[in-house]
From TrEMBL:
EC number: 1.5.1.54
Catalytic reactions of this protein: (6S)-5-methyl-5,6,7,8-tetrahydrofolate + NAD(+) = (6R)-5,10-methylene-5,6,7,8-tetrahydrofolate + NADH + H(+)
Organism of origin: Gaetbulibacter aquiaggeris
Coiled coil regions in record: none
CDD domains: MTHFR
UniProt similarity note: Belongs to the methylenetetrahydrofolate reductase family.
Gene: metF
Key word NAD present: yes
Protein name as it appears in the record: Methylenetetrahydrofolate reductase
Keywords assigned: Amino-acid biosynthesis, FAD, Flavoprotein, Methionine biosynthesis, NAD, Oxidoreductase
SUPFAM superfamilies, alphabetized: FAD-linked oxidoreductase
Alphabetical list of InterPro entries matching this protein: FAD-linked_oxidoreductase-like, Mehydrof_redctse-like, MTHF_reductase_bac
Domain of life: Bacteria
Record bears the keyword Amino-acid biosynthesis: yes
Length: 318
């Protein structure tokens, strides 16, 4: 079922959902199941599965020589989506990236998703690879997420890249895109970024999931400005509980987001990361309670591999 249909069916009741990261290459899907299992009691109608960007790895060739190869350390997003969907009878949403894929590869991936009964896809550009200063599209790939949304919308109309399909075979994806309450790090201003978001919606995106934020006012202002910009699709808030002290530096550095002074102060007072995890949970509970009161369609949590903190939050909210 589509995310927009889940929201409609809930008739104003806020839904619970979360995002998981595929395990590293060679590891077992059981570790994902172990993390998902404790969250199923909160009845998520859908679960997102991220896609990792490629990165360089160095292979020891012996005699002190290193070979540099490009690889994706956490592949398997679509397969994992299919496995979870089948095991838990829940909708799963693969994150589909521009970065590292040609348009043809994307088309094959989307066709696979359709065969597997996946009704929702999240269209994302992806970040620059670690060694790059700026994002570079793959040769024959998309540069911006809006182009990827166009490709998905075309497929929904039965329009393939190379018009070789003779039937009127169409996909029927509900398309999600990313939004940034504190603007995307590369955007010159929030208004410009909102124009870009509007382009994604105009291209066919059906809902937005936000980047994490720690001050709900940023989300409320963003939703208001988005409405003024003519964006009328659901905007789902993304929430990440702080889990380690290092997040105080890492999150602003990587995502260019602000952390409120009060939260910084609470985290700095902690003696160990166990205490930090508790502070992160308490902050996320307060954020969730306020967002729930405001009637947000879904509370979407970034689980980053471990679910104990999401369970602690969800058990207070749902
Ligand atoms: P875009 O919408 O393409 O925007 C990227 C930048 O380009 C913005 O600054 C925008 O303002 C600008 N822009 C857009 N169009 C134009 C144009 N025509 N001309 C000039 N500038 C333009 N990353 C992963 O690698 N894997 C994931 O699974 C993943 N999941 C995510 C889930 C969510 C909910 C969010 C919020 C982010 C996720 N990301 C993921 C991170 C995302 O890939 C990065 O934030 C990336 O840098 C931007 O992606 P985007 O889809 O927002 O890009």
């Amino acid at each position: 079922m589509k995310v927009t249909e889940h929201i409609k069916k809930a008739k104003g009741k806020t839904l619970f959902s979360f995002e998981i990261i595929p395990p590293q290459k060679g590891r077992n899907i059981q570790e994902l199941y172990d993390n998902i299992e404790p969250l199923m009691e909160f009845k998520p109608p859908f679960i997102d599965v991220t896609t990792s960007r490629e990165e360089y790895v160095y292979i020891d060739k012996g005699q002190g020589l290193l070979d540099r190869k490009i690889t994706r350390m956490r592949p398997g997003t679509v397969g994992i989506c299919a496995a979870i969907k089948h095991k838990y009878n829940v909708d799963t949403i693969p994150h589909v990236l521009c970065g590292g894929f040609t348009k043809e590869e994307t088309e094959y991936l989307l066709v696979d998703c359709h065969y597997l009964g996946i009704d929702n896809v999240m269209a994302l550009r992806g970040d620059a690879m670690k060694h790059q200063q700026y994002f570079e599209a793959a040769e024959g790939g998309h540069t911006y997420a809006a182009e990827l949304v166009h490709q998905m919308s075309d497929l929904n109309k039965g329009k393939y890249l190379h018009e070789v399909v003779e039937s009127d075979y169409k996909t029927n994806f509900c398309i999600g895109v990313a939004g940034y309450p504190e603007k995307h790090l590369e955007a010159p201003s929030l208004n410009t970024d909102l124009k870009r978001l509007k382009e994604k919606v105009d291209a066919g995106a059906n809902y937005v999931v936000t980047q994490m934020f720690f001050d709900n006012d940023k989300y409320f202002e963003f939703v208001e400005k988005a409405k003024q910009a003519g964006i009328n699709v659901p905007i789902i808030p993304g929430i990440k509980p702080i889990a380690v002290k290092r997040h105080l530096q890492l999150l602003p550095q990587v995502f260019k987001i602000d952390i409120p002074e009060t939260l910084i102060h609470e985290v700095e007072k902690c003696k160990d990361n166990h205490q930090v995890r508790q502070v992160g949970v308490e902050w996320a509970i307060k954020q969730s309670q306020e967002l729930l009161k405001a009637g947000v369609p879904v509370l979407h949590y970034y689980s980053m591999g471990k679910s104990d903190n999401i369970k602690a939050i969800a058990s207070q909210i749902f």
